[in-house]
Specification:
Elements: E1 5-8, H1 14-26, H2 36-44, E2 56-66, E3 69-79, E4 92-100, H3 110-128, E5 132-135, E6 147-148, H4 152-160, E7 163-165, E8 169-176, E9 190-195, E10 200-206, E11 209-217, E12 232-240, H5 249-263, E13 268-274, H6 278-286, E14 290-296, E15 299-301
Parallel strand pairs: 4-5, 12-13
Antiparallel strand pairs: 1-2, 2-3, 3-4, 5-15, 6-14, 7-15, 8-13, 8-14, 9-10, 10-11, 11-12
């Protein structure tokens, strides 16, 4: 077999890298893929991370190539060490994402390629001389963050390379908007639509008092960035006033949101909850959601 080569990413790799990324995205979120433009843009900056992205001082993308094919790739970030950087990110190095083909007939040496590339990543982190080394799987696609359970080959690579899961676990849920509660009137309750922190906010009012609200973000798929994924939205916030708990307001607000989302042409809705929050997860599943995946956040290098 031709020798493996680890080298910096070149623009000529863009199509193969995008294909490799989309193979990983497709195992997490149904019907979503990203464009070449999305991938190239994300290598230069992460506009959605408006707080942490300005703290990045260096970005490096490495690939492992064999037979003129990109079989593995990784994107690394180095955060500044000055006081303007948040304490959790100050002077750290991170493998922002790592993708590689699992062993197969056509790629029998894929694990070898992944290990070789990981060695190069760890060497780069060592040269940066950062105070801590972290890893994740935050691809530039909706709902793909942390280390999804759908990537056992990446998990195995991280673990044999000395990374350990030290963070929390989140559950990613999805529902068809047609499976959500029906949009029904509620005596004495009105709904007001405004702009919220994370998208369109629908607030329930009774006697001039806000009982709760839900925010839905329908801007997950920018037309200039995503080739597929239109029709997807997520819940940015869902809050019920403690005095209104137990009155079924969560389902009623989801019904209001589903009606609005269908008018927007959205057919699927995502939600994210901490795995430990079983009560909220039960509320969502009873309203039509089902578990899409679990993702483990926070991987630290502890050789």
């Amino acid at each position: 077999m031709p020798a493996l080569e680890v080298r910096p990413f070149r623009r000529a790799d863009r199509d193969q890298l995008t294909e490799l990324i989309n193979l990983h995205v497709a195992t997490v979120v149904p019907g979503v893929s990203v464009s070449v433009n999305t991938v190239l843009s994300a290598l230069e900056r992460q506009p959605d991370e408006f707080i942490t992205d300005p703290w990045v001082s260096e970005r490096v993308t490495l690939v492992a190539e064999q037979r003129d094919h990109v079989v593995a790739a990784a994107h690394l970030l180095r955060y500044r060490a000055d006081d303007e950087v948040g304490a959790d990110h100050r002077d750290i190095g991170e493998i922002d994402w790592f993708v590689h083909r699992p062993p197969a007939t056509f790629w029998p040496d894929s694990d070898e390629a992944a290990d070789l590339l990981m060695s190069a990543c760890l060497a780069r982190l060592a040269r940066w001389n950062v105070r801590a080394r972290y890893a994740s799987g935050d691809l530039p696609a909706p709902a793909v963050y942390g280390l999804p359970r759908n990537w056992p080959h990446i998990r195995a690579l991280y673990e044999r390379s000395g990374f350990r899961h030290v963070g929390d676990t989140e559950v990613v849920l999805i529902a068809r908007t047609t499976d959500l509660p029906l949009h029904k009137p509620r005596p004495g309750v009105t709904v007001d639509r405004t702009l919220g922190e994370c998208g369109t906010r629908l607030t329930a009012y009774a006697d001039g008092r806000a009982l709760g609200f839900i925010e839905v973000d329908t801007a997950l798929s920018r037309p200039e960035r995503h080739t597929r994924g239109l029709g997807l939205a997520d819940i940015g916030n869902l809050h019920i006033d403690p005095t209104a708990l137990g009155e079924g307001l969560e389902h009623w607000l989801l019904g209001q949101a589903s009606d609005w989302l269908r008018l927007c042409g959205v057919d699927r809705l995502l939600a994210y909850e901490a795995a430990a929050d079983g009560t909220t997860i039960d509320h969502l599943t009873s309203a039509g959601f089902r578990e899409l995946t679990r993702t483990d956040r926070g991987w630290e290098h502890r050789p």
